[in-house]
């Protein structure tokens, strides 16, 4: 297993790393001091599971779990507070370790991870956010840091292998995420118009018909986005 420890307290990270390094079947261990750093490390390190603190500055463990790209690593929450247990398991956590814990308790958590990974089952998808609590910002890891991108700046989205391209007037950042999962988080503001694309509904200015039932969506900023006949009716209905 490849494990990423996410905790803003260095002594807690060091203790957990020592305990994990004594257990069999651990291939690699990395650390992140907060949720934003964890998101930056995910693409390169590709952990099987996160050992995730709950209370952290800027981005809590629960918020990080809800922001994980799909397919998401498994999550074990590690915290000194038992008040978050219900929310943790609602986010499909594999286990919930209360500090301080001993080696035997850690071994039970590791066995649960091994059992899930042995089954070849991916981490359960986190429930989509409803329109009342839809995301207003996305955290986009970049080489120079993490970009905070307001959702209103995203004109349209297209898939690119294991990523999505977020088309804005200021650039086209990449996010390691599936289009379907991201649309679930963005709520009703976006509509899927193609197997590989979605647009912000309020920005559509014109629908230009093409051959064979396809069409093209012209956005307020001038972008032209393909709309296939499979999605044309739903786009027009939403408009």
UniProtKB/TrEMBL annotation:
SMART domains: LytTR (SM00850), REC (SM00448). Residues 138-239 form the HTH LytTR-type domain. SUPFAM superfamilies: CheY-like. It comes from the Bacteria. The modification 4-aspartylphosphate is found at residue 53. It holds the Pfam family LytTR. Gene3D superfamilies: 3.40.50.2300, LytTr DNA-binding domain. Residues 2-114 form the Response regulatory domain. PROSITE patterns: HTH_LYTTR, RESPONSE_REGULATORY. Keywords: Phosphoprotein. InterPro entries: CheY-like_superfamily, LytR-like, LytTR_DNA-bd_dom, Sig_transdc_resp-reg_receiver. This is Response regulator. It comes from Massilia terrae.
């Amino acid at each position: 297993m490849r494990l990423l420890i996410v905790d803003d307290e260095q002594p807690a990270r060091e203790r957990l790393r020592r305990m994990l390094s004594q257990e069999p079947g651990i291939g690699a261990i990395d650390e992140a001091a907060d949720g934003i750093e964890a998101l930056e490390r995910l693409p390169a390190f590709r952990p099987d599971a996160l050992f995730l603190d709950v209370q952290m500055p800027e981005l809590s463990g629960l918020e990080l779990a809800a922001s994980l790209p799909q397919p998401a690593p498994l999550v074990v929450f590690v915290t000194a507070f038992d008040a978050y247990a219900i929310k943790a398991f609602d986010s499909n956590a594999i286990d919930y370790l209360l500090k301080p814990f001993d080696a035997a308790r850690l071994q039970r958590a590791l066995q649960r991870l091994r059992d899930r990974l042995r089954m070849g089952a991916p981490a359960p998808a986190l429930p989509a956010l409803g329109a009342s609590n839809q995301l207003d910002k996305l955290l986009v890891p970049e080489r120079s840091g993490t970009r905070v991108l307001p959702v209103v700046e995203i004109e349209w989205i297209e898939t690119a292998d294991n990523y999505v391209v977020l088309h804005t007037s200021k650039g086209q950042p990449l996010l390691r995420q599936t289009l379907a999962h991201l649309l679930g988080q963005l709520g009703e503001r976006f509509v899927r118009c193609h197997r590989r694309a979605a647009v912000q509904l309020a920005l559509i200015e014109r629908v230009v018909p093409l051959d064979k039932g396809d069409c093209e969506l012209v956005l307020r900023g001038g972008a032209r986005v393909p709309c296939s006949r499979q999605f044309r009716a739903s786009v027009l209905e939403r408009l």
